[in-house]
Amino acid sequence: MDYFDVVVSLKGIIATRNAADYAVIEKRAHPADIAGALAQHPARDQSLVLGMASPAARAEVFGYLDQDQQVRIAQHLDRRRLAELFLNMSSDERADLYNRLSDDQRDTIMPALAQVEREDIRQLAAYPEKTVGSVMTSDYATLSPGLTAAEAIDELRRVAPDTETIYQAYVIDKGRRLIGVISLRELILADPTARIGDLMKPSPVWISASAPREEAVHLIAKYDLLAVPVINGGNMLVGIVTYDDAMDVEQAETDTDFRKVGAVSELGRGLKEASITLLYRKRVFWLVLLVFGNLFSGAGIAYFEDTILAYVALVFFLPLLVDSGGNAGSQSATLMVRALATGDVVLKDWASMLGRELIVAGLLGATMALAVSGLGLWRGGPEIALVVALSMQIVVIVGSLIGMSLPFVLSRLKMDPATASAPLITSIADATGVVIYFAIATTVLGLPEVGS
Amino acid sequence: MDYFDVVVSLKGIIATRNAADYAVIEKRAHPADIAGALAQHPARDQSLVLGMASPAARAEVFGYLDQDQQVRIAQHLDRRRLAELFLNMSSDERADLYNRLSDDQRDTIMPALAQVEREDIRQLAAYPEKTVGSVMTSDYATLSPGLTAAEAIDELRRVAPDTETIYQAYVIDKGRRLIGVISLRELILADPTARIGDLMKPSPVWISASAPREEAVHLIAKYDLLAVPVINGGNMLVGIVTYDDAMDVEQAETDTDFRKVGAVSELGRGLKEASITLLYRKRVFWLVLLVFGNLFSGAGIAYFEDTILAYVALVFFLPLLVDSGGNAGSQSATLMVRALATGDVVLKDWASMLGRELIVAGLLGATMALAVSGLGLWRGGPEIALVVALSMQIVVIVGSLIGMSLPFVLSRLKMDPATASAPLITSIADATGVVIYFAIATTVLGLPEVGS
Asked: What structural domains and CATH numbers belong to chain A?
């Protein structure tokens, strides 16, 4: 049953309130498709449809809805229903939902849950946003090293309904410290009487619960893991991050980086769904800020007004020169933001990257100076050509260094380097470009400065 | 054994040529770490170390090296060794390597392989780059619907050494057509005597081998799959794309999009590893192209020289106005490039997106016009204020529309929308901004145009 069929069937089910038809969808369609189709209906109809689902399937479809919708539906559910939903949701999604409920809703739901569930929710919900702890799940399978392979498979079969994956099991000692991992594949290939302690891979890859969540994504991608185990301050195993949650994190991080590079703040949803007022709000801040940033360029120009009046041909090259600095700078910034985000470059590389960038920018500047000097000759004669070529060389080097350094500086200040957006770099490079250009012009062409 | 230990041990092993020490690393370190440490040594030492490895482990480490290094090492291996390596590599990595070997090397290796391997390599290597076929593997597990659950588990155990995953098995009919999927989890939870045909999930998610590879990533992320099955033109199952390969594709696509948005062509490797000449080559093309693109701005300015000489205060606002158009445009372009890349927006949405963008840009322009009119009043009086505010309003709308439309146009022309880079948008928006600004100025301030 493909997505289109689900959309059509769901419309019918909402119209007729026929629960038997829903059972057919539930059996034949993917929960992600049911959630996708459901997302287009109002919250009242959504809770109606979810009421028809079996408890486990309901939690699964609910988990695929976006968080705003989850909260809205939760408001339509009575205490018993909400408690049942909480019980069936995966532990990480449940903790995220809990964090978005009102205090009233939390007070309603918590007493309806067993002690162990309450503890689990409180613990997972306590990790700060964007940490590994905030995306991990506590539904993982553990084994003790003394079990045989056959016993371990039985154990995994027993816990399967309550774990996100049984394909990786984590071997722990009596103090819940992680001592090894073993995959179900290894287990079913092993001699059934062999001990887990001998079969397991010791000293596995792990991550701390307080690390940034992107690091879990890096580890999973680098080592091709199904999940990475998470350790707390006391070296105890407290959760796992699965590959599918890692893919969602990666997607979210990439979206964020892109928006920041484009100087748009987080939309929180798809471009198509975003309302006009949301788009306006998310874009206006940077644009207006950059207007005022640009005043420095203007001030530079005002300062050199006499030079401009004497050589109006200089204005001809103004957009070209300031843009070239900005373009070279946004190239460096883009490369650097991405390299910092993927961990390819780290903070301490700054000095060595600076040296390389200086050489690359020098070569780029020389090439562009050559290209532009011909134009200068044609437009304004040899003196203008000299001014333009010299300015181009310096403007490109300065722009590149700004573009390269700003992401490092932001990173150092514990800010997201992606905030070094192309528009910001352009504006900064513009202001310096204007000053460099007219200062060189005034020097070479020998004009008096304003006020002298 | 962590990465740092591996680096140190490997240096020792290369110095002493002690194969027993390598056996320790092989057992205790992750192949990705061994490959990472190995990458820092010359190809001759790399083949020396790989020669110490057991055949299966060797292929695994080799698979984690980047493709340039794989090709260089392959040149150091004799025919027997290379054939053995080919036999042990996963089918997708093997086909990629095959595509990068010289004709001579291909002719050497192919006769040393069995017929079935040769066929597999030829088939996989034939898919065009960036299609699903080019990233899929043919090492997957199939089951026939008549097997019982217990028989199916035995079958998976049997094929485990040669398949990338046994956690998902694909149920096929006699014509190799995909009729269902079943997970190992479901199999071990099922009644051992139940039939696969009854247990399997019918009509599973699938993808065509000729589809763009990003679509496989979308499906895997959307439906939380371990792997997506791949179908050829005749509806036959021909391979699977696993989640770990999907994560690599996602990473590569994101890097490409970022570089394009920053107007840098594909580096093919990390920023830190890239040589200075490579960086120069990859960046110079766009920068020089944009120099010539910027001539249009210059020409616009030359045309309105008289206006500038009469009102030199106009130059004060020049960088501000042209930048604002470029900034608004690169915001729209960034949002649109990303939305097209993730499939959030498709080509046919152009008209409706245009309408929304017009409204958003109108509001943004009005806000910025208001901000800048105060400056105009202060710098040049009410007439200049009017000119600047009016220009700002129009420049922002035009810039946004260019930024929003260019990715669509490129997409329509079957070019990558990410080529609508911020620098390109800025340059186009600049040229139009200059003309708009001075045309409005000339009209409002009532100056004669050049040549009249």
From this structure: 3-126 (1.25.60.10), 141-244 (3.10.580.10), 294-445 (1.10.357.20)
